[in-house]
Amino acid sequence: MINAKDFMEMAQMFHGHKCPAMHMGLRTAAAAMNALGVERSKDSQLIAFVELGEGHFAHCFGDGIQVVTGCTFGKGNIRQLGYGKFGLILVEKATHRAVRVVPRGEVQLGTKQTPFFTQYREKGIPASAVPPEHIEPLIERIMSMPDEKLLKISEVFEYPLEDKEESFASFLCERCGDTVVEKYGRIFGDMHVCIPCYEELSSGRDGTE
Ligand SMILES: [Zn+2]
Ligand SMILES: [Zn+2]
Q: H-helix or E-strand containing 141?
């Protein structure tokens, strides 16, 4: 069994400040892993699809997911679905077994109606500048609530995954000299170049046109 509390210290250091959303990510991830009966992803054994969008509150959720599941930006096994929601679909790559876990709407609404949001975050004050007395009780509540009160956990279902091979092919851009993964290469005239160089050459911005 994965216990979200075991990851709090590491997650707070990684994330940079204390906030309720990151801890909600810890709980959501742990519940998803326990539903599937899987361990933390050492390589790409798990793939996480997070429903977050961009530029909205509680996006910190995604860091809690990364810490507990081991689905990280660096390993490339976390994807953003862009729905502006807080669901996690966690998939075991070998079996395509998946579960969707989402924080209960009433719990998230309860958090949004506290001073952490109404007196600080919504007025543009960063989480690191909010007094601890407005954060600690929220974290305590999220970390101690039973799974069934905090989260909606789906049945295990099958999730279709396309098998993408990891690419090792690369070349050096003939204009800037940077290493570029092969499939991101572009041809400009007789030059094999990177995307930014291609765009600059195409627009004539570097004066060579
Ligand atoms: Zn945060
Ligand atoms: Zn280049």
A: helix 136-144
